[in-house]
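User: Good morning. I'm curious how zinc ion would be positioned relative to this chain. Could you predict the structure with it bound?
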Amino acid sequence: METLVRAMGSEGVLAFACVSTRLVEEARRRHGAAPTAAAALGRALTASSLLSATLEGQQKVTLRILGDGPLGGIVTDTTASGDVRGYVQNPAVHLPLSNRRKLDVGAAVGRGTLHVTKDLGLRWPYHGSAPLVSGEIAEDLAYYLAQSEQVPSAVSLGVLVEPDGRVSAAGGFIVQVMPDADPGARDYLEAHVRALPPVTQLVQQGASSADLARAALGRLGAHILEERPVRYRCTCSRERVEGVLALLGAEEVESLLAEGRAEVRCRFCGEVYVLGRQALQELLWRLRGSRPPVA
Ligand SMILES: [Zn+2]
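Assistant: Good morning! Here's the predicted structure, ligand included:
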């Protein structure tokens, strides 16, 4: 089972780390994502998992990366219990490798805005946003955390896509320096994180989420505070699909009924729900508040 860990180092620093290979491969497969799209979606899914590390109970975080590049928007959300799901608007996008021979996520995402919405069970959800600085997602999230949430952070995200298109390694970490942290610790972390090998290399070598947290904090040490499971899981269901159709109104449902069936595909997981004549008729009766005639 893949996990997310929350760890504390000395000198007032925190780390959140996650190995997400299976989770990202599942997303890649469900959406049939091409390599560049899979890397971008995988980084966003990993980022949203990391952002969920401090959530509890029914709380949820949604990350939206809305760039003007060919990928279109990327939307991911994660619950406190570790259910992660997400989609990219144009999963078929694949760009030539960048001049550093890497998947060019930055060009595929483009310029735009990163939005974070946290449903903390309060009356209004918390919302913050920041402009995308590179479209590479890790840098964008670090900028957002520093600017919008005022927490200086280093973020590393990685997704390795094999020549056959499968995701063979994925993971990431966020390191945060608390306001009362020793300034020396901050300088050390900056240099240390920059000198680390790519996350995907550590994951390929068999690193666990806790190992990633330890690697990220280096000589500041990592005391693991919590470890919780993460997996790709969608909350869609037949009932929810019927609920969405009901919102369209009786007239729309009637015209679907005239066509004989309705097919709804969940954007988050690709599941297809087919409602036949019987289901649509029952929905229509419910919307009109009338009962079927007794035979
Ligand atoms: Zn779904």
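DSSP finds ten helices and 13 strands in the chain. The chain has a mean pLDDT of 94.
Let me know if you'd like a different ligand tried.
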